[in-house]
Amino acid sequence: MNFDILTLFPGMFAGPFDESIISRAKDKQLIDISLHNIRDCAIDRHQTADDAPYGGGAGMVMKAEPLAASICAVKALRPESTVVLTSPQGRRLTHRIAAELAERSGLIIVCGRYEGIDERVRTLYAEDDISLGDFVLSGGEIAAMAIVDAVTRLIPGVLGSSESAEADSFGDGLLEYPHYTRPPEFGGLTVPEALLSGNHELIRKWRRKESLRKTRNLRPDLLSQLELSREDLKLLAEIEREDAGGN
Ligand code: 9D3
Using CA positions, which residue lies closest to atom 13 of ligand 1? Predict the structure, then answer.
């Protein structure tokens, strides 16, 4: 998978891709990340990439020509890649959308800045538009990093066999069960007995139940989207009895 990132602030990407899973995916040549400074495509003396909005008002707008030139230059190198904008008006990034993007051979991710990009660039070039959610970021760079990270984890071979079950855990639509490691007692709190039992069936059931409990209590919206097995329904009935009145 080729990631081409178009940004006015390439320096922001020094670091985040040089650690752990992303770095290993690069070493294994499962992904390649290229940064492109949009300003390099501005042809005027001051390399202007932004300008005041037509109609007036606060802030600046990313100019069409440098951005279009930058997109075209990268698209010429990688005609198969999909042009993805990052903006507050995009589709909110989810596991499902990350999985969808992981199917493409390459992504050209355009990082929005200022009040946004000239709408004509969206009309002419955008094939997708992604937001991280309903809060204000200073620009699309952090969204681009989130996309690269979430998508890379879903590319076959990136995660080891012990890690890849983890990638599925949003795939099954539930929150994760609680995790514990040594010591057996901490801050006056012990580890649930089932986890110390060595009984794999007991452990599996406990984890499933606690996954259901967390999801019911923290994200009931997720639970209502799921098809639950008979075991799930039985476990939920137990949870209802145990947690009667809340918590
Ligand atoms: C002060 C301007 N805003 C009015 C609420 C509009 C606005 C324009 C541009 C707010 C933020 C930005 C810059 N943000 C992004 O480019 C962005 C973003 C975000 O702000 N939130 C969540 N996901 C994303 S992806 C790109």
Answer: 139
Nearest CA to ligand 1 atom 18: 88
SS3 81: coil
Cβ neighbours around 152 below 10 Å, total: 23
151 Cβ neighbours under 8 A, 6+ residues apart: 1, 3, 98, 101, 102, 107
Overall CATH class of domain 185-243: mainly alpha
Bridge partners for 4 per DSSP: 34, 108
Tokens of 93: 């990034």
Cis ω before 66 (30° cut-off from 0) = no
Alpha helices in 33-157 (DSSP H): 64-77, 95-101, 119-125, 141-152
Please give the distance, rounded to the nearest whole angstrom, from the Cα atom of residue 94 to the centre of ligand 1: 18
Which two tokens mark 210? 């606690």
CATH architecture, domain defined by 2-152:
3-Layer(aba) Sandwich (3.40)
The residue to which tokens 């400074």 are assigned: 37
Rounded to a whole number of angstroms, the distance between the first and last alpha carbons of the chain is: 44
Q: Is this model's pTM higher than 0.85 or not? A: yes
Break the chain into its structural domains and give their ranges: 2-152, 185-243
Residue 216 falls in the annotated catalytic set: no
Span 152-197, pLDDT tens digits: 999 999 999 888 755 566 778 999 999 999 999 999 999 999 999 9
